[in-house]
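Table S2 (text version). Query chain:
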Amino acid sequence: MKKIIAILLTVTLTTSCDSFLDQQPLDQPTTTADIFKSRVNAEKYLFNCYSYIPDYWLLSAANGFPWSAASDESDVAWSHDVNKMNNGSWNPNEVPYGKWQNIYQGIRDANYFLKNIDICKELSDEEIKQYKAEVRFIRALLYVNLIRTYGPVAVIHDELLSIDDEIIIGRNTFDYCVDYVSNELTEIAGILYPSQNNTNLGRPTSGAALALKAVILNFAASPLFNTDASIYKEWKSATTGDNLMPTTYNEQKWRTAAAAAKAVIDLNRYELYKEFDSHGNIDPYNSIYGIHYHKWNNELIFGRHMTFGATEAEARNFVYRITPKAFTNCWGGVSVSQKQVDAFAMNNGKYPVIGYSDGSPEWNGKDGRNPIIDPTAGYTETGATNFLHPWDKETMLTYNMYVNREPRFYMSIVYDNLKWVYGSNLAKNTVIDYGNGGNSYEASGTNHPLTGYTPRKFTFRETDPALGNSGFVFPLWPLIRYAEIYLDYVEALIEYDHTNPDVLKYWNELRARAGVPNIESVYPDIENNRDMLRLMLRRERQVELFFENSRYFDIRRWKIAEVTNNNCPVYGMNITVDDGAPNSIGNTDYWRRTPIYRGNRTFLLKHYLYPLHQNELDRNKIIEQSWGW
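Corresponding structure-token output:
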């Protein structure tokens, strides 16, 4: 038997190389030569490679993704496995949402395609060149997902194993993994088309390759991986004895990350999505709405339509999970945390909650019950006001916590006593009531938000939840959008050149689109204060990228999850009592910061990285378990 001593992983070697065809009818081609003989079958295999791109709208249910609910921005009411992550009860014998083997099977399928696509004589040389670049992008994306989850992983390059190979497994170093992906993306950026025509939307472009490079370099420059005080100093390679993680701080990593983000900006190919009013001023509400709902706009660098690669039922389930139970078939059990609600600014640009009484160095520390309120922000948590919702144009008695907040708040959050003004007459003018006995509370079940808030983001105005399955319109899911590149660039500059004028230039362009004043006009002391810049930029990111699977990885790469997610509950309103609508909004016990009933969350240092399942360790004795597990 051939022995390959390499940096590899355990893949499913019991399937044939023709894994895409394993599920095809028997009269389909069954040999490599047959698969790649025709354009039709070769492109089927190409599309099979695309199927490994994650469907991130599949929330924390089986086979979904826990990224939002395992961060401090949200939770779910159901008994999903994400609860094991949040209470610390997961272990190598039970790894919720572990995708190690599946991702590497995707990498193996990509390598199989790359090895054999030249067989197809019905494709032109240019088409083969492009298809190879697309599959290399998909492979790079899969590695990025592995690195962000597991840290240092196994890079198998173009290697393709057969079932007769004996595998000895080890991880490459973290820096090697990042360099490999970065170099791959640099190379294919020179091959991929700068844009796709209308029949190829959704395929990667040269800009998408450079943007993904910027994302992984920003991740690698972050404090968890770039510090003199690394928790990973004793984590060694089983094959070489080298440190698997960097153990010293390297400022150059921030410089490299900034240059990668700036290279995307300098393409002049993308722009923040903006709409304007009749006077030529930015309309922040329609602009924020249009980011996700005007499909394939120039802010979206790479994304997927929610029904592509997944059943329509799964896409509908996403909408059911975030839409209040007041509507037909909806569940409304995705809960936005009080801490996330607190993160949004007022319409004057000031942040109303500047910390919590636990004294955490991060503003969003543990104690969501006792906020520290900026007395100059114009914010109060007492009483209610007849308030005109600036997007819905409906005046309702509104708890003062939600009055005069920034536009992104109203486009992101559904709160109690909000009137739903869209859809058919069956849905229109429904007033959302999350309190006990209300239309969006399920007393004998879990189909309600534990916090009294659900996400509004990714909900079309055209979606009519009262019509059930036939009433949904699905947005595009952004894997990378231009706003993230702006945030990455500014973050990197802050870390080594915080007085660079680009810090405020690009940050304020993002804030202008969001309808809030320039950051330095609100906080004049910020310009020469790196710590303040860093803190405020992280908050900007928390708001701008809310519910886009960013927060989970951000609080880990910044190494603050041990504060934000440890020994603390998730707070919200007290849904166990009546909200007092319509006359006592803001005055009943519903309107009090209350910990949800799940109890405190637990986050240990080992939780910064995912563990390998014990099955992987049993199959191969050389593969290194993740640190601390």
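Notes on Table S2: The longest helix spans residues 125-150. The longest strand covers residues 300-305.
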